[in-house]
Amino acid sequence: MGLIKRYPAVSWGLGITIAFLCLAFFRPSATDDFLNTLELKLYDVRMGMLAEPESESSIVIVDIDDQSIANIGRWPWPRSYLAQGLHLINAGEPAVIGMNIIFSEPQVEEGLDVLKKMEKLFMTLGLNEAPNGELYHQRMVERMAPLEYDAILAQVMSDSENVVLPASFYFTDVARSLAEDQLSQLEENRLTLVGKNENSSAPLANVVELPIPIFLDSALCIGHSVLALDPDGKVRREQLVYEYEGNLYPSYALAIAASALGVSLSDIEIDLGEELRSGPHALPLTRDSNVYI
């Protein structure tokens, strides 16, 4: 008792340390939950202490928020609006643009659909060969062009040459294969596997939702947008790769970072469970291919 009274701080420290060692050794399930939660909270505290909220950043976030919707109209907006925004952003000459929207379906304007049906009927009846028929057809095509929202946005993406798009990777009970041309396009974004730690792994996907072909052709590259959620619902880790059909594909954030550095995805080598590397750049990995953010 004399030592405890003489050195209370040391005694408390030793007592707490011994208690946690016992908990870690016996590892009851309730203790696992407690220790995991404690570890996550301590991680948040450490990151808060290391953060520099006033530090400069070259990253600019353009958000589609409630005020934007109030000013422009309900979502989804015509993709011609997104094209205008993308054009304005490009005026600032960014190194890369991450457009965090999965364009998995075409956007068809009802008026455009009607005009296309009229054009088809017009051509079927041979009215384009009637007097002034070709002129009438030309005017019809001119009216359709502003309603080709996907084509307008895709053209701006293509001209930009720096737009990275997300894709969705996930695993379900019923696998769904990509068409051969889509798989070929997807494989242009794979990383080069050069090694694998025997205890390492990457999450497996058997379904991939890609942007529609017109956007997939226009984008610089793509990456998976799956978030790695901790038990408390927060995101503290980045799942850097997903496996699909035997290939490894980068996360959306990794694809953006690589593009900003001028690194092609095909030039990134991955030693699974060890590190990612490309030239002088290297990033250590956990066994499950995560990095903490």
| Biggest sheet descriptor | 4 strands, mixed
Low-confidence stretches: none
Overall spatial form:
elongated
Order of helical and strand elements: HHHHHEHHHEHEEHEEEEEHEEEE
Strand content: 15-25%
Based on secondary structure, the structural category is: alpha/beta
Q: Helical amount among residues, as a percent range?
A: 40-55%
Span between termini:
45 Å
What oligomeric state best describes the polypeptide chains here? single chain
Number of helices: 11
Task: Specify Rg, calculated over alpha carbons.
Answer: 27 Å
Number of strand segments: 13
What does the average pLDDT come to?
Answer: 82
Outline the fold blueprint.
Elements: H1 2-6, H2 8-26, H3 29-50, H4 66-72, H5 79-90, E1 97-98, H6 110-124, H7 133-144, H8 149-160, E2 163-170, H9 180-187, E3 192-196, E4 207-209, H10 213-218, E5 221-224, E6 228-229, E7 235-239, E8 241-244, E9 247-250, H11 252-260, E10 269-272, E11 275-278, E12 281-284, E13 290-292
Structure description:
By secondary structure, this protein is of the alpha/beta class. Helices cover 43% and strands 18% of the residues. A hairpin with a 5-residue loop joins strand 6 and strand 7. The longest helix is centred in the N-terminal third of the chain and has 22 residues, at 29-50. The two termini are 45 Å apart.
